[in-house]
Every structure is written in C-alpha cells, then in structure tokens.
C-alpha cells in the first residue's frame, strides 16, 4: 500500500511539471472536459470505492483548492473525520472470540467415532467413561453431537445394524461353515464334495465325495463329524449353511441336539459364507484345477491329502502366517537346514526344519578304529 501511495504521488508531480509547459487556455479546456466526465460518472456510480492511497492523494490535493470548489468535492472535512474514525477503530480492534466452549480437537473427535463404530452397544455415557479412562474429559452431550454430525445413530440402532462380517468375526471361535464344492472329472462327470471349516482355526474337514448327494447322505456325514470332534463338538454354538434343499430339517436337528444353532445365509449371498467360499477357490487354484480327476476315489484321496497340507503345512494370513495345526505359543528357532516334503506327487511342497549336524572329531574316529 505504501508503494502504491508513492507511485500516485510521483504520477501527480509529473503531471504538474507537464502542465507548466502548456497554455492557460489548454489547461482550462482540459479542466472543463474532466468536470463533465466526472459529472457523467457520478450519474452512473452512486458511491465509488476508494483505496487508502486514493484517499490520501485526494486529501492532499483538496487543501489547495478554493473553498468554493472544496465543498463540491467528495473529500470534505466530514469525510476526513470519518476516515480518521475508521483508522482509530482499525488500530484498537481485537480478534473476535466465539462464544461457548472451544471446539474438540480432531484427535478426540476421531477417537469418539472409532469407539462408536467398534463398539455398537456402547451408549454416550459408556463412551464418556472410556474416554475418561484414556485421559479425555468430554461431556455426554458433546459425544451425542459428534455422533449425530458423523451420521452414527445411538447404541440400540448401531447394534441392530450389525453386518455379517462383524458377526463372523465376533463369533469365529464358535462357528462352523458347511458348503458344497463341485469338481468336473476327466470323463465330464460332476462330483460333489461336502466339507466343513472351523472358522476360528481355519481347519478344514473333507466329509465326503459323491456324484448324487442327498439329504440322508448329508445328515449321516454330520453325525460322523460330531463323533470325530468328540469333546470339541460342544464348543461350537453356530452353524452357517446355505439354503440348499439337501440341508433338511433332520440335518438341523442333529446339531440342535448338540446345542448348535443353525444360521442359514440370505438368498444368493455367497459373501455370508465367505470363509468356505474362499477355501473352495484356494482348493481349486492349488489342487483340483492342476490335476485330472478320474473318479470319486481319486478325488477323495486327493482332497484328503490336500486337507492335511492345508491344516498342517500351509501358512495363513489370518493366523499370523501360521498353519491351523501350528501351536501359536511356540516361536520356531532359525533352522540350520530345510527338508522338502512333496505332497500330491510334487504338486505341493512342504518344508521342515532339520536338526544341526554334530561335528565329527578325528580323535573319536581313531579311538573307535583302535
């Protein structure tokens, strides 16, 4: 702004020097033309906006005008007093402070949203108590306002909006997932594989293989599974299956007698049984799609060997890169060597650690020879 003022003063001084070389008649004619232009502009513009530098230049030039002309100018004594009052207000102005409490930090808001999403049954006061334990003092009304602004409903409504993914994660240790898998043989005959997966450990049991599955066959395999599980059968509280007609009422009654509730998946919703569907894709990509299956016996042998590999020799992302049968409390030591074990004729490979070889001492050899 200071440079603008200096530039305007320089331009006016240069204009004054140029006027000294002109005649009086030329100056009077230019003044009349400028007055008329100003009158035309005043009819079009009611209140022009002047900058601080424009006001300073007009104030300085207005002092040299005759009193009669000074009254007709926009820069009158009243205008100067108004400008002065504005300068005083600008000097002593203060930053406006909003009324009420200061806003919550973004970290606290994100923490409130996280607690509400991860705990659908927690109400405002429950979240308030958890925040206090973490060192944040926030009122329940503030938590309610934050959740409303984020589009999160109260606790009862959040709990009723539980998805299949959250249900499976929370109940994984008590879930069994049943499903069918079909395989085409080399003679274009379709075979059906009935299997079950323990969701928590990802352990798979291949129950049977047949070309004509029926409700009685499926029910008998369910009874065989409960006998094989023995005491562990009582740990499972929920069973997930689709709405296939082969899952009859007798099949559900077998698990109901064991205290296991049967949960059918929604119609045409394969993601509701995502763990079983994922195993089907893995088994096909790693096993059945790489072999030519000749019949039921061949497929049963192949899938039994693959299930043993899947449970005992294959790393899983969801299990921390461990196999389902690995002990999670055992930390393996660095192996001195690795031994390869081929599965299904070399289609799959398993690697096991080898104990370090003991050094041979020449003195022992000499004494033994003697």
Automatic annotation (TrEMBL):
Residue ranges annotated for the Integrase catalytic domain, each copy included: 152-332
InterPro entries assigned to the protein according to its UniProt record, in alphabetical order: Homeodomain-like_sf (IPR009057), HTH-like_dom (IPR025948), Integrase_cat-core (IPR001584), RNaseH-like_sf (IPR012337), RNaseH_sf (IPR036397)
Recorded coiled-coil stretches: none
Top-level taxon: Bacteria
Function: Involved in the transposition of the insertion sequence.
Protein name: Integrase core domain-containing protein
Organism: Streptomyces asiaticus subsp. ignotus
Source organism phylogeny: Bacteria, Bacillati, Actinomycetota, Actinomycetes, Kitasatosporales
